[in-house]
Write a structure and sequence with these properties.
The structure is a single chain. The protein is α+β, with helices and mostly antiparallel strands. The chain has 9 helices and 12 strands. The strands form 3 sheets. The protein has a 5-stranded antiparallel β-sheet with strand order 2-1-5-4-3. Bound molecules: adenosine-5'-diphosphate.
C-alpha cells in the first residue's frame, strides 16, 4: 500500500480538484460581480426615471420671463397625482428623494431620506453612499434647472439580498459541478493508472521467481503499454539468461562426468589386483589424457567466467590485421595440410587496436572449424575488409553448412549441431561461445551466414579502435 502523500493517484487528484476549484471560484466571482453590476444598472435606470418623473411635481412650468429660481420651487403635495406617479416609479424599494437648492438648502426630502444633505454635492451619475447614520444606499444625483440638485436613492439592502440569493444559487451549481467533476476525475485517474498496479503486481510475481510470467501489455501504443512491453522484453532476456546458466552448469558437469568416470573405472581395474607394467602404463595414459581434456575444459570455462565477470583484461595494442591473420593461418597450416584443404588469404593491411593474442585465438578457432566441418576437396578463405570505420574479418568455407534454425544457437555454450559426430571429433561446443565473447569484449560482433551443404561464412566486425 502506497502512503497517501506518495500516491501518484492522490497527487494528480489533488491538483485536478484544486484546478477545478480555482476555476469554478473565478467563474462564480465573475458571475456574481456581473449580476451585481446588472442589478445596479437596473436600479439606476429606475431611479433616473423616478427623478425625471418627479421633477415637474416640485418644479413649476417655466414662466415666460425665464427659468424659475429654486426659491420658487414648491413643496410637492403628496396628494398631487403627478407626485404619486413619480413615487410609484421608485416602487416598493423604499426609494427616497431629496431636493436641494444651489445654496445647499434642502427644500424637500422624503422621510426615509438620509439626514446628511451634504451628500448631494457629489457629481452626477450613480453613487454609492454611506450616510452618516451608517445607512448604505445607492443614488442618482441629477442637476435641475436653476442649478439645484435632486437625489433619488434607495437602500442597498434589497439589491444586496438579490445578489446574495444569486450568489447562493450559482454557488450551489458550482458545488454540484465540483462534486461531479471530482467523482468523474477520480474514476478517470483510477482507470488510467490501474495498469500500473497490474504491471507492478505482475513484475513482483516475476521478480519473486516465476520468470516465465509476463505483464499484460494492454494497448501497445500507450505509455504504459510500452512500459509493459519493455518489461516483458527484460523478463524474457532474464529468463533466457537464467535458462542458459542452468543449461551451462548441467552441460559442464556432464562434460566432466565422462573423463572422471573413465579415470575411476581404469584405476579400479588396475588396483583390483597386481598388474604388469604395461597395464599400469596404459592406466596412467588414460588418466593423463582425461586430465588434459579436463584441463582444457576448465581453462575454457575459466576464460568464459572471467569475461562474464568482466574480469578478463584485454591487452590492447595497435596491430596490423595482416600479422594476426597470418599468424593464425600459420598455426592452422598443419591441420589444413592434413585435410588437404587450401586456406586462401585475401588479407589487406589494416591497423586495428585489439588484443592480438585473443583475436588470434578467435581466428584460429574459426579456421579450425572451417577445416573440421569441411568436405574433401573443399576450400577455406580468410578475408579482411573495411567500411565506415569498421573492420571485417571473414572466414568462409565450402563445408557442410549449418541448418538455418540452428544458426542462432551455435554460439551457445556446449551447443553442437550434431552431438554424435562432434562427440567423436572431440568438440565441446565452447569454441564459438568463446569467440563471440572475445569479439564482444572488443566492442565488435560475430555473426554467421550459412547454406546447408554449401558452406558457411563467419564474420567478425570490429571497431578500428577500442576505448
Ligand atoms: P565445437 O568444439 O563443437 O566445434 P564450436 O562452438 O566451435 O564447438 O561450434 C559449435 C557447433 O557449430 C559445432 O558443433 C558445429 O556443429 C557448428 N559449426 C561451427 N563451425 C562450423 C562450420 N564452419 N561449418 C559447419 N558447422 C559449424
Amino acid at each position: 500500500v502506497i502512503p497517501f502523500g506518495k500516491s501518484i493517484r492522490w497527487q494528480i487528484f489533488l491538483y485536478y480538484t484544486l484546478l477545478i476549484g480555482v476555476g469554478l471560484g473565478v467563474l462564480l466571482t465573475g458571475h456574481v460581480l456581473a449580476k451585481k453590476r446588472d442589478l445596479e444598472a437596473l436600479a439606476q435606470s429606475r431611479m433616473s426615471a423616478g427623478a425625471v418623473a418627479f421633477l415637474p411635481a416640485i418644479f413649476p412650468p417655466p414662466s415666460p420671463r425665464g427659468l424659475s429660481r429654486p426659491e420658487s420651487w414648491h413643496r410637492p403635495d403628496p396628494d398631487n397625482p403627478r407626485f404619486r406617479e413619480a413615487m410609484a416609479v421608485l416602487g416598493r424599494d423604499e426609494g427616497f428623494l431629496m431636493a436641494v437648492t444651489e445654496a445647499g438648502k434642502v427644500i424637500y426630502r422624503t422621510d426615509n431620506a438620509p439626514q446628511d444633505a451634504r451628500l448631494i454635492e457629489q457629481s452626477e451619475g450613480l453613487q454609492q453612499f454611506e450616510s452618516v447614520k451608517g445607512f448604505p444606499f445607492i443614488a442618482v444625483v441629477i442637476n435641475t434647472p436653476g442649478n439645484g440638485r435632486l437625489l433619488v436613492g434607495m437602500p442597498r439592502t434589497s439589491l444586496d439580498a438579490e445578489v446574495w440569493v444569486e450568489a447562493r444559487r450559482a454557488g450551489l451549481w458550482c458545488l454540484a459541478i465540483f462534486a461531479s467533476a471530482s467523482v468523474v476525475g477520480f474514476w478517470i485517474i483510477t482507470k488510467g493508472l490501474s495498469p500500473i498496479a497490474r504491471i507492478s503486481g505482475a513484475a513482483e510475481r516475476i521478480a519473486s521467481g516465476d520468470l516465465s510470467g509476463r505483464v499484460e501489455v494492454g494497448s501497445e501504443g500507450s505509455e504504459l503499454g510500452q512500459l509493459a512491453a519493455v518489461l516483458n522484453q527484460t523478463f524474457a532476456r532474464l529468463e533466457d539468461v537464467l535458462q542458459r546458466q542452468v543449461r551451462f552448469t548441467a552441460d559442464a558437469s556432464h562434460e566432466l562426468r565422462t573423463p572422471v568416470a573413465s579415470i575411476i573405472a581404469d584405476c579400479q581395474f588396475s588396483l583390483k589386483r597386481p598388474r604388469d607394467a604395461e597395464r599400469y602404463r596404459e592406466t596412467i595414459e588414460v588418466c593423463h589424457e582425461n586430465a588434459q581434456f579436463m584441463r582444457g575444459l576448465i581453462e575454457r570455462l575459466g576464460l568464459l567466467a572471467k569475461f562474464d565477470a568482466a574480469e578478463a583484461q584485454l591487452e590492447l595494442t595497435d596491430v596490423n590485421v595482416v600479422d594476426v591473420a597470418e599468424h593464425a593461418r600459420a598455426v592452422i597450416a598443419p591441420l589444413a595440410e592434413e585435410k588437404q584443404i587450401p586456406v586462401t588469404s585475401e588479407v589487406k593491411a589494416l591497423m586495428v587496436r585489439v588484443d592480438p593474442l585473443r583475436l588470434g585465438q578467435v581466428i584460429i578457432n574459426l579456421l579450425n572449424n572451417a577445416l573440421r566441418y569441411n568436405r574433401p576437396g573443399g576450400q577455406v578463405w580468410l578475408r579482411t575488409s573495411e567500411a565506415d570505420g569498421r573492420v571485417f574479418i571473414e572466414v568462409a568455407d565450402t563445408g557442410i553448412g549449418i541448418p538455418a534454425d540452428k544458426l542462432d544457437r551455435i554460439f551457445d555454450r556446449f551447443y553442437r549441431v550434431d552431438e554424435s559426430r562432434e562427440a567423436k571429433s572431440g568438440g565441446l561446443g565452447l569454441g564459438l561461445a568463446i569467440c563471440r565473447t572475445i569479439v564482444e569484449a572488443h566492442g565488435g560482433t560475430l555473426g554467421v551466414t550459412s547454406e546447408l551443404g554449401k558452406g558457411s561464412c563467419f564474420r567478425i566486425e570490429l571497431p578500428r579502435t577500442v576505448g
